[in-house]
Structure prediction request, 70 residues.
Amino acid sequence: ITIEDNGSGIEEKDLPHIFERFYKAENASSQSVGIGLALAKQIISAHNGTIEVESIHGKGTIFLVKLYHT
Prediction:
């Protein structure tokens, strides 16, 4: 599953941390609590899957979700 946007992207310094619970990048919404991507990764991992991210700040982000049948 590929999820792609053409938004503001994620800064390179934030990429290693975006799946950490309660991590909020500097440009995160003031309403964000920083659990969405951590929760998504936990759910995907619980179903034998992986989630990867590619992002270019100023151009957009791509999330690649892979689910494996066991």
Observations:
- DSSP finds one helix and three strands in the chain.
